[in-house]
Amino acid sequence: xxxxxxxxxxxxxxxxxxxxxxxxxxxxxxxxxxxxxxxxxxxxxxxxxxxxxxxxxxxxxxxxxxxxxxxxxxxxxxxxxxxxxxxxxxxxxxxxxxxxxxxxxxxxxxxxxxxxxxxxxxxxxxxxxxxxxxxxxxxxxxxxxxxxxxxxxxxxxxxxxxxxxxxxxxxxxxxxxxxxxxxxxxxxxxxxxxxxxxxxxxxxxxxxxxxxxxxxxxxxxxxxxxxxxxxxxxxxxxxxxxxxxxxxxxxxxxxxxxxxxxxxxxxxxxxxxxxxxxxxxxxxxxxxxxxxxxxxxxxxxxxxxxxxxxxxxxxxxxxxxxxxxxxxxxxxxxxxxxxxxxxxxxxx
Length: 348
Description:
Layout: H1 6-14, E1 28-31, E2 41-44, E3 57-60, E4 69-71, E5 73-74, E6 83-88, H2 90-105, H3 112-126, E7 141-148, E8 166-169, H4 182-190, E9 194-196, E10 201-203, E11 207-209, E12 214-218, E13 226-234, E14 237-253, E15 259-262, E16 267-269, E17 276-277, E18 292-295, E19 304-318, E20 325-341
Parallel strand pairs: 11-20
Antiparallel strand pairs: 1-2, 3-13, 4-9, 5-20, 6-7, 7-8, 10-12, 12-17, 12-18, 13-14, 14-16, 14-19, 15-18, 19-20
């Protein structure tokens, strides 16, 4: 007999109220076929009205600054939370739970164990441990419900918030480490920061010669401090946090072992005017670049993939916090083609 663990039930039932929101937005998606691990719930996108959506809002550098952009990647073994808990009113929770129940329980296409699970879940809050979703106590507290990052809902980290919706009285803290707070908001804001594409200017441009120093630099106008603010204002919870990333260096990886970098570490620090490196100019031919690369062997057909990565220093400030708090550094980079040719000698 197919069994559903507590953690998987959270997914199957939409543990809470948002079964559709946990699934891909396709016209018809089967979530976990027999033999799979998700409980076999099928979803048809026929549901009208809104499900419980996250109340967290973001503003700031969430779209990049024109041209190509991408999301900052944490340096080291850390990642922003993939799930958290937020407060909702008794009416909101009741409406969404009933919709989720109707979606599965009244659908003959759903397997019997899925319909039974949503019935058991609904019964806890409607007629069991709680009465009518605590609507009679609506002014006394809120339901705290799990939310997940829509881009990461299949990750193991998104299953940490497997606690069923819990009631918290007004003025009391939500007793769970994943209950949203300013620090969690800062971590979610970290994941929303979009950074400009890292394409360095090279001299010589695109094609260089073996043993010829290639200068690399970045315009100070392109790489500036960026920030994103995350805020939650719901059910008496009014908190916010701003995460700020500041560029500190450029890391060059030539794309081959047959190369040397300037400096030898490959890490070009940011200048006082926020530029990185130094533009090449006539008269500097005999100088070593402050930031650059020297290839020792021709690329022979396929170009080398020079990877340029900007390193960002990250911190946050927020409600109830004194001063900027450190966060893991971030990185964002891109590859660009470099053709390296042999110097041709001419014999007369």
